[in-house]
Specification:
By secondary structure, the chain is mainly alpha-helical. It is about 55% helix and about 10% strand. The protein has helices spanning about 5-30, 30-40, 50-60, 70-85, 105-115, 140-150, 165-170, and strands at about 120-125, 125-135. The model is unreliable at about 5-45 (pLDDT under 50).
Length: about 170
């Protein structure tokens, strides 16, 4: 090549122009599309087995209805470590919340468990448990949200708990 410096300058200008166009295109996209453009596609390149697993995990994860999301957030932070992702108890010493007869007839039994904790023997689904569940420093709204989430998850029949019901329960305990 006769003019290597000229070729390097031209190549540099071309690359700069491409990068500028790509940056402008990304800036004109909505934020979610821009973020997607910045990360590799889950189904392209990389390890196909990992991509398939990630895609399957996203599809397998149950979608939480909007009115239960606050309760799921409390559950994930405070309850999931012991009661498990599926609400079945993370080991044989911890009672299940799934299809639980412990609070099926009285949702306030669930509220009491969250608000006051549990010490001593309880029977859940015909099995005796003897342990300690701590109470958590939660607001009435948080107890209502997590109780409603549990009542509507893990195969339970459903139901709602309001913050007023929690406040009334607490007022009656004094």
């Amino acid at each position: 090549m006769k003019h290597p410096l000229s070729a390097a300058v031209i190549l540099g200008l071309l690359l700069t122009g491409c990068n500028t166009q790509e940056t402008q295109a990304n800036q004109s996209q909505p934020p979610a599309a821009s973020q997607a453009a910045e990360r590799p596609s889950e189904n392209s390149g990389g390890n196909p087995a990992q991509n398939a697993q990630a895609s399957a995990a996203q599809n397998a994860a149950p979608q939480v209805p909007e009115h239960l999301k606050a309760g799921k957030a409390v559950y994930d932070k405070r309850c999931k470590a012991c009661h498990g992702e599926d609400g079945l108890g993370s080991n044989a010493a911890l009672p299940p919340l799934g299809k639980s007869d412990y609070f099926a007839q009285d949702k306030m039994q669930l509220v009491a468990s969250v608000a006051k904790g549990i010490r001593g023997k309880i029977t859940v689904n015909g099995k005796e448990y003897d342990g300690i569940m701590p109470s958590f420093p939660l607001k009435d709204e948080e107890i209502a949200a997590v109780s409603t989430y549990v009542l509507n998850s893990f195969g339970n029949a459903g139901g709602e708990v309001s913050a007023k019901e929690v406040a009334d329960y607490r007022a009656g305990q004094k």
